[in-house]
Amino acid sequence: MKGKNLQPRLLYPKIFHANGDQKKAGVAILISDKIDFKMKNILRDKEGHYIMIKGSIQEDDITILNIYAPNTGSPQYIRQLLTTLKGEINNNTIIVGDFNTPLTAMDRSTRQKINKETQALNEALNQMDLMDISSKNNRIQILLKCTWNIL
């Protein structure tokens, strides 16, 4: 496969995306044709900062939320978005994306303390019973800092 120019549609025929008008933001969720994913609902941000798809895999419901937070004010943005979408988030929800903010001091290159905005975001995540599983179990990694996530 090396050197080949493969089209994403050939590898991942189920591509869901939300794009902003000014090409400043955009998120996508690509699902392999090997996954029996059946789409039920899709919610897109008109500015391209998030996309949420609801569907099922082998008759089990699943929700995938991909967030690309703005470069400034990201903790408040994420907290507000999760509060707004609270009714859509359940035990079968996977949240991925680029939060543009470190959730822990370990996520920072300088190991500085996290600021009050990030503490407030972490409190909101805890109140919604959401957790960063990459910090809970080193063998399982959810890419919270990567714009492209593939299921």
Automatic annotation (TrEMBL):
Its cofactor is Mg(2+). It catalyses: Exonucleolytic cleavage in the 3'- to 5'-direction to yield nucleoside 5'-phosphates. Keywords: DNA damage, DNA recombination, DNA repair, Hydrolase, Magnesium, Metal-binding. Residues 17-118 form the Endonuclease/exonuclease/phosphatase domain. It is an enzyme of class 3 (hydrolase). PANTHER family: AP ENDONUCLEASE, EXODEOXYRIBONUCLEASE III. This is exodeoxyribonuclease III. It comes from Sus scrofa.
